[in-house]
Amino acid sequence: MRRVPQPVVVVTTSNGGGGGATESIQRRGVTVSSFTPICLHPEPLVSFCVRIPSRASDLLHASGGMVVNILSHEQMQQSVAFSSPNKADQFKDIPFYDDPSTGLPVLMGTLGSMQCKLLKVLELGDHELWITRVTKVDHGVGSKLGRREEAQPLLYYDRMYRSVGEQVFMKEFEDSMDPRLWTHRAHVRMAWNYLKELGKDTATPVIKETIRRHFEMNPSKRQSYHETITSFYIHLVNLAIESPDNKLQDQDDFFEFMERYPILTDQNAIYKYYSPKMLKSQDARSQFLPPDLQPLPSKLPVEKS
Fold first, then answer.
1. Are 18 and 87 in contact (CB under 8 A)?
2. Does residue 153 have a cis peptide bond before it, meaning omega lies within 30 degrees of 0?
3. Which of 12, 92, 227, 281 is the most exposed place for a label (fewest CB within 10 A)?
4. How far is it, in rounded angstroms, from Cα 82 to Cα 11?
């Protein structure tokens, strides 16, 4: 199965999925695994898998309705956004609309989407297998020129995005002029790619130069390049990559990697080692300063599955 390409699919749902009005609409999306068409007759059925427990699973059960959004190769932002299960507002800065007939959120710029209703759920290991009935199909119209033929799929291959998705991600990161797309998690993913491929000694200057160039392309009063923060998170990511716990796992899946080391998603983790006063100093911004609260960690905590 490592050699079988899979389309990257985001399943979206909401508590307004029945089409009725609700006082407070909750929307969730999840980048699913193992999306599969099952049959066309006597009715079209598709399936997908969702890791449990998860907020997306809870809302899918409550709604009973969902939209299967098939991402184009230009939608790395959506892939990143919906692979973060604990993110509160997943739809922030994501183009979407609520379908007027079902109330379900539909992502824009996809290859296409399928509105579905629950038929059966099977709990298998740490995932649920959702078998759903397709009730409506919306054809995508691309994301730039508005032509369907321009859209190419975003694929998952060999247990990683490297052959397609990671290359797309890295190109988007290096070329993007929109700072809203590149969150802390995206910066960690960029560092993970370089560290795995080049090793720490070679990768470190490349990562720093990439981030410097990124901030130069996206000047902001709130954010600019910070040498100490950058060096700190390079240290954490490399610790995780080199950890014996990681070497026993699949080392090519970024999403599983982040689940094993949730500290990497914590932007406040650095304050266990550095005081705010030191991090705000110009010296810390321009050169690496050792921590003033406690030494840099030599091992990261692992989230056991």
1. no
2. no
3. 92
4. 9
Task: Tell me the whole-structure pTM to 2 decimals.
Answer: 0.54
**pLDDT tens-digit series, residues 78-128:** 877 787 766 677 888 888 999 988 899 999 888 889 999 999 999 999 899
Say which residue the tokens 């907020």 belong to.
55
In one letter, which amino acid is 242?
Answer: E
How far apart are alpha carbons 26 and 15 in whole angstroms?
6
CA distances from 3 to 35, 41, 72, 158, 168 (A): 15, 29, 20, 5, 19
* 204: Cβ contacts below 8 Å, ≥ 6 apart: 231, 234
The distance of Cα 79 from the centroid of its chain, to the nearest Å, equals 5
pLDDT in tens, 264-300: 888 899 999 999 999 999 999 999 999 999 999 998 8
pLDDT for residue 234 is more than 70: yes
Contact 154, 164 (CB under 8 A): yes
Q: Which residues contact 276 (CB under 8 A, 6 or more apart)?
A: none
